[in-house]
Amino acid sequence: MSETTKNKYTLETLLPLNVSYDRDHILRQQDVDMVNRLVEVMEGSRTSLTPKIGDRMRHVDQEGDFYGHALLENLRADGMSVCLAPYVPFVGIGDPDIWLSVSGGPFTSIDPAEMKFIGWEDGVFSAWGHCGPCANGSVRFMAKVAKWEYSDPEPLYGDFTTETWRKLYVRINDNPESRYRYVADGTAFRDDSDFDRFKKNYEATVFNHSDSMLVVWC
Q1: For the chain, how many structural domains are there in total?
Q2: Is the separation of the CB atoms in 107 and 76 below 8 Å?
C-alpha cells in the first residue's frame, strides 16, 4: 500500500499548479484544505494488489497502439472502464471510494485481474474550488496513485507497438492512371521499387490488413 500524505499542500505549494485560478478567483486556504482531504482519501485507498478508480495504466491494444497514461475511470459489471487518453479528471469523495468525472477517450473495459502492477505515479486531478462550478473555477493538484500495465493477449502485429515504432496504414491503389501505387497518411510511393526503397531505409515490416490495405511498422 502506498504511504498516505497528510497536509500535502500549502497555499505556497499549491499555487504553482493554479496560477490562472488564483488570478481569477484567488486561491484560499479553503481550497488547500479541500485538496489535502482529497489527496489523503485517494492515497490512503491505493494498493499494489487491486486496481482502483483514479489509478493510471500503460496500455497496448490489439492494434499495437500504445497509451502511456490511461486512466482507470470506473468499475462496471463488465470490468474496469479505462479512458485511454484522458484530460485532467474531476474527482470527489464517494462511498466507499472516490468518484471521477472523465473526458477524453477512447474508452475500453478490462478485467482488473489482467492488470499488472508496475509501480507508483503522481496523477493530476482537479476539483471545483471555493467559487463553485464556473469558468476557470477548478483547482488542480497531484496525488500518488498505482500504475498498472496491460497488453492485449492476442496482438495482431506481434511485439510492434507505437511506443517505439511508427505505424502507417498504406492503401494499395489499383487505378492504372494514378501517379502513386501506394498511398499513406503524409506520404506516397509511385511503384513497387519506390516502396521497396522506403522499406529498406526505414527497416519496415509489412502486414496485410486487407486486400487493399497494408500496415507498415517502421
Answers
A1: 2
A2: no
Tell whether 144 and 175 lie within a shared domain.
no
Rounded to two decimals, the pTM is 0.89
Mean pLDDT of 94-110: 90
Q: Would you tell me how many other CB atoms lie within 10 Å of the CB of residue 125?
A: 24
Distances (CA, A) of 89 to 59, 176, 212: 18, 51, 40
List CB contacts of 63: < 8 A, sequence separation 6 or more: 156, 157
What's the one-letter identity of residue 124? V
Where does residue 166 rank: exposed (0-12), middle (13-18), buried (19+ CB within 10 A)?
exposed
- Buried b / exposed e along 61-88 (16+ C-beta atoms within 10 A): beebbbbebbbbbeeeeebbbbbbebee
- Pair 218, 204: CB distance under 8 Å: yes
What's residue 28's pLDDT?
97
Residues 6+ away with beta carbon under 8 Å from 105: 83, 84, 85, 86
Domain hosting 69: range is: 11-151
Contact 107, 81 (CB under 8 A): yes
- Name the residue type at position 179: R
Please count the CA atoms within 13 angstroms of the CA of 210 that sit on its side-chain side.
7
- Kindly state whether residue 174 falls inside one of the protein's structural domains: yes
> Are 108 and 142 part of one and the same domain?
yes
Lookup: cell for 2: 502506498
